[in-house]
Design brief:
Length: about 160
């Protein structure tokens, strides 16, 4: 019973969980790393992107998930919470890819995603799913149960 309540709570707060993962991912290992070119030792930590004047968009990689976490508690934004929580992950996905290009330009080469960026994108997708479900009034728990029942029927028919 406790496990089911925890899963329900996580599913209902998927946008919150995704935002936390996004913030934590900035502090986990490398965010961008070289792809084996001439500058093979080049790597960028996620926390170095946050307050670096070379990458001004990096600051938004932590600010937008933080906005997602606090927007529910700002009374003047109560009418726009769902929209803000939907737009923030979309913007951060764009910024992750734009920053990848900027880091590659500064490093005089090309870079690829490292572990921190992949975890950040995972959190981003979770936040986007949760915010999209809230914005379009979809009950995620009910949809997951329907999909599970459909998969169970498919396996029973084989």
């Amino acid at each position: 019973m406790q496990n089911n309540a925890t899963v329900t709570r996580v599913i209902r707060n998927l946008d919150f969980v995704g935002a936390i993962i996004m913030i934590v991912a900035l502090f986990l290992g490398d965010f961008y790393a070289d792809d084996g070119g001439a500058y093979a030792a080049q790597s960028v930590k996620g926390y170095r992107l946050i307050l670096n004047s070379d990458y001004m968009l990096g600051t938004l990689l932590i600010l937008l998930p933080a906005v997602m976490l606090i927007v529910k508690y700002i009374s003047s934004l109560k009418n726009n919470v769902k929209l803000i929580e939907l737009v923030c992950p979309i913007i951060t996905i764009i910024f992750v890819f734009v920053l990848k290009g900027q880091v590659g330009d500064v490093a005089d080469g090309t870079v690829s995603f490292a572990m921190g960026a992949w975890i950040y994108l995972l959190g981003n997708v979770l936040a986007l799913i949760g915010a999209g479900a809230a914005f379009f009034n979809v009950d995620l728990e009910k949809k997951i149960q329907e999909v599970a029942k459909g998969n169970q029927k498919d396996t029973n028919n084989k």
